């Protein structure tokens, strides 16, 4: 199975749109949104990759 991403890849600044209440509550708890987005994205990619591999092996 291929790597989902390279851990040492450079970071890139970007803008995101987020619910203002969610942002305020996250900031109040000192949530690192960059790390949270990276973690969630990695989980989504891993899940998607597992599904793709299962389908390519004839599994439902």
Report the radius of gyration as a whole number of Å. 16 Å
The major beta sheet can be summarized as:
none
- End-to-end separation in angstroms reads 19 Å
Structural class: mainly alpha
Order of helices and strands: HH
How much of the sequence lies in strands comes to under 5%
**Oligomerization status of the protein chains:** single chain
Helix content: 55-70%
E-strand count: 0
Average pLDDT level: 83
Figure out the total of helices: 2
- What is the 3D shape? extended
Q: Indicate the low-confidence ranges by residue numbers.
A: none
Briefly, what is this?
This protein has 60 residues and is an all-alpha fold.
What does this structure look like?
This protein is mainly alpha-helical and 60 residues long. It has a domain of 29 residues. It contains two helices and no strands. The two termini are 19 Å apart. The mean pLDDT is 83.
Record keyword descriptors for this entry.
60 residues, mainly alpha, extended
Topology:
Layout: H1 20-28, H2 33-56
């Amino acid at each position: 199975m291929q790597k989902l991403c390279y851990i040492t890849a450079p970071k890139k600044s970007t803008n995101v749109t987020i619910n203002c209440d969610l942002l305020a509550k996250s900031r109040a708890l000192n949530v690192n949104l960059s790390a949270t987005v990276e973690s969630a994205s990695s989980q989504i990619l891993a899940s998607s990759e597992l599904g793709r591999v299962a389908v390519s092996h004839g599994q439902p």
